[in-house]
Design a protein that fits this description.
- By secondary structure, the protein is an all-alpha fold.
- It has 2 helices and no strands.
- The protein has one domain.
- It is rod-shaped and about 70 Å long.
- The termini are far apart.
- The model has no long low-confidence stretch (mean pLDDT 86).
Length: 71
Amino acid sequence: MDDQSFTIVESAEFHDMIKPCNQSAKIPSANAVKNQILQSFENNQIKTKDELQVNNIVVIKYVYIISLYNK
């Protein structure tokens, strides 16, 4: 399979490839795939931002403590 857009999930060839693996598979639309990926990206972006903010606070406290120790 090559690097095609999400619309590949709507092609007959994609359905023909998936159906032998699982006859009852419900293949999402291209928009559903795109929306799931965007939602996952946004969730991970928020999580990463929060983690970096917490880590930044820890680093600032560490630098402050070291500066007090080195006086």
